[in-house]
Protein backbone atom coordinates (compact mmCIF):
# COMPACT_ATOMS: atom_id res chain seq x y z
CA UNK A 1 0.00 0.00 0.00
CA UNK A 2 1.39 3.28 -1.02
CA UNK A 3 0.96 6.00 1.52
CA UNK A 4 -0.13 9.31 0.16
CA UNK A 5 2.48 11.92 0.49
CA UNK A 6 1.13 15.14 1.81
CA UNK A 7 1.09 17.71 -0.91
CA UNK A 8 2.08 20.56 1.30
CA UNK A 9 4.02 23.36 -0.32
CA UNK A 10 7.62 23.51 0.94
CA UNK A 11 7.39 27.26 1.19
CA UNK A 12 5.08 26.87 4.17
CA UNK A 13 7.75 25.13 6.23
CA UNK A 14 10.34 27.64 5.20
CA UNK A 15 8.02 30.45 6.22
CA UNK A 16 7.31 29.00 9.62
CA UNK A 17 10.82 27.84 10.24
CA UNK A 18 12.60 31.06 11.15
CA UNK A 19 9.62 32.36 13.10
CA UNK A 20 9.77 29.54 15.57
CA UNK A 21 10.60 30.89 18.97
CA UNK A 22 12.58 28.65 21.26
CA UNK A 23 10.01 28.50 24.00
CA UNK A 24 12.25 26.56 26.32
CA UNK A 25 14.58 29.46 26.78
CA UNK A 26 11.69 31.91 27.18
CA UNK A 27 9.81 30.03 29.84
CA UNK A 28 12.74 28.50 31.63
CA UNK A 29 12.80 29.87 35.15
CA UNK A 30 15.44 29.45 37.80
CA UNK A 31 14.67 26.79 40.38
CA UNK A 32 12.44 28.10 43.13
CA UNK A 33 14.39 28.85 46.23
CA UNK A 34 13.18 27.25 49.42
CA UNK A 35 11.83 30.06 51.57
CA UNK A 36 11.70 29.44 55.28
CA UNK A 37 8.49 30.86 56.67
CA UNK A 38 8.92 32.29 60.10
CA UNK A 39 6.19 32.39 62.69
CA UNK A 40 4.42 35.77 62.39
CA UNK A 41 3.21 35.74 65.98
CA UNK A 42 5.42 38.57 67.15
CA UNK A 43 4.54 40.65 64.11
CA UNK A 44 0.83 40.01 64.55
CA UNK A 45 0.88 41.06 68.19
CA UNK A 46 2.71 44.26 67.38
CA UNK A 47 0.30 45.02 64.56
CA UNK A 48 -2.81 44.55 66.69
CA UNK A 49 -1.46 46.54 69.60
CA UNK A 50 -0.64 49.54 67.45
CA UNK A 51 -4.17 49.64 66.02
CA UNK A 52 -6.08 49.12 69.25
CA UNK A 53 -7.74 52.18 70.69
CA UNK A 54 -9.93 52.90 73.68
CA UNK A 55 -12.95 51.51 71.85
CA UNK A 56 -13.66 48.04 70.53
CA UNK A 57 -11.71 47.46 67.35
CA UNK A 58 -11.43 44.88 64.60
CA UNK A 59 -8.55 42.56 65.40
CA UNK A 60 -7.37 39.06 64.69
CA UNK A 61 -7.17 36.85 67.73
CA UNK A 62 -3.70 35.31 68.09
CA UNK A 63 -5.23 32.33 69.85
CA UNK A 64 -8.22 31.25 67.74
CA UNK A 65 -7.41 33.36 64.62
CA UNK A 66 -10.95 34.79 64.64
CA UNK A 67 -11.17 38.27 63.10
CA UNK A 68 -13.87 40.19 64.88
CA UNK A 69 -14.44 43.10 67.21
CA UNK A 70 -12.69 42.84 70.53
CA UNK A 71 -14.29 42.98 73.95
CA UNK A 72 -12.99 46.00 75.85
CA UNK A 73 -12.65 46.05 79.63
CA UNK A 74 -11.55 49.29 81.26
CA UNK A 75 -9.30 48.82 84.24
CA UNK A 76 -7.75 51.50 86.44
CA UNK A 77 -4.01 51.85 86.04
CA UNK A 78 -1.29 53.77 87.87
CA UNK A 79 -2.34 57.02 86.21
CA UNK A 80 -5.89 56.51 87.45
CA UNK A 81 -4.70 56.13 91.05
CA UNK A 82 -2.36 59.12 90.79
CA UNK A 83 -5.12 61.28 89.34
CA UNK A 84 -7.53 60.22 92.09
CA UNK A 85 -4.86 60.98 94.71
CA UNK A 86 -4.21 64.37 93.14
CA UNK A 87 -7.90 65.26 93.16
CA UNK A 88 -8.15 64.08 96.77
CA UNK A 89 -5.19 66.26 97.82
CA UNK A 90 -6.65 69.29 96.09
CA UNK A 91 -9.69 69.06 98.28
CA UNK A 92 -12.09 67.24 96.04
CA UNK A 93 -12.43 64.14 98.14
CA UNK A 94 -15.91 63.61 96.85
CA UNK A 95 -14.61 63.84 93.29
CA UNK A 96 -11.64 61.48 93.67
CA UNK A 97 -13.65 58.62 92.29
CA UNK A 98 -14.11 60.39 88.96
CA UNK A 99 -10.98 58.87 87.33
CA UNK A 100 -12.35 55.42 88.12
CA UNK A 101 -15.51 56.28 86.21
CA UNK A 102 -13.91 58.05 83.25
CA UNK A 103 -12.87 55.46 80.71
CA UNK A 104 -10.23 57.69 79.16
CA UNK A 105 -8.34 57.60 82.46
CA UNK A 106 -8.20 53.83 82.49
CA UNK A 107 -6.46 51.14 80.50
CA UNK A 108 -8.60 49.57 77.80
CA UNK A 109 -7.88 45.87 77.77
CA UNK A 110 -8.89 44.16 74.53
CA UNK A 111 -9.83 40.50 74.73
CA UNK A 112 -11.17 38.10 72.14
CA UNK A 113 -14.96 38.06 72.21
CA UNK A 114 -14.91 34.44 71.10
CA UNK A 115 -12.34 32.72 73.31
CA UNK A 116 -11.47 35.50 75.75
CA UNK A 117 -7.77 35.54 74.93
CA UNK A 118 -5.79 38.71 75.62
CA UNK A 119 -5.18 40.62 72.39
CA UNK A 120 -3.80 43.95 73.54
CA UNK A 121 -4.33 47.02 75.62
CA UNK A 122 -4.61 50.74 75.07
CA UNK A 123 -3.52 53.34 77.56
CA UNK A 124 -3.98 57.05 77.12
ZN1 LIG B 1 -9.94 34.13 70.18
What are the SSEs and their pairings?
Blueprint: H1 10-16, H2 23-27, H3 41-51, E1 58-60, E2 67-69, E3 71-76, H4 78-89, H5 98-101, E4 106-111, E5 118-122
Antiparallel strand pairs: 1-2, 3-4, 4-5
Bound molecules: zinc ion.
Q: What does this protein look like?
A:
This protein is of the alpha+beta class. It has a domain of 84 residues. It contains five helices and five strands, in the order αααβββααββ. It has a three-stranded antiparallel β-sheet with strand order 3-4-5. A two-stranded antiparallel ribbon has the order 1-2. β4 and β5 form a beta hairpin. It is rod-shaped, with a radius of gyration of 35 Å. The site of zinc ion (ZN) has 8 residues, from loops. It comes from Drosophila grimshawi (Hawaiian fruit fly). GO terms for molecular function: zinc ion binding. It is a peripheral membrane protein. It holds the Pfam family zf-LITAF-like.
Q: Let me know the largest β-sheet.
A: 3 strands, antiparallel
Average of pLDDT:
76
Oligomer: single chain
Strand order of the largest sheet: 3-4-5
Beta fraction: 15-25%
Spatial extent as radius of gyration: 35 Å
Number of helical elements? 5
- List each distinct ligand once: zinc ion
Question: Helix and strand string, N-terminal first?
Answer: HHHEEEHHEE
- Poorly predicted runs are 40-50
Number of strands: 5
Global geometry: rod-shaped
Secondary structure class reads: alpha+beta
Which bin fits the share of residues in helices? 25-40%
Distance between the termini: 96 Å
Amino acid sequence: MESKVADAPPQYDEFCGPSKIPTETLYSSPPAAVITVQQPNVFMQGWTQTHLGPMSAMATCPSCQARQFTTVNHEPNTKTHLLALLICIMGGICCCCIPYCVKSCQTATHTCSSCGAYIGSHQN
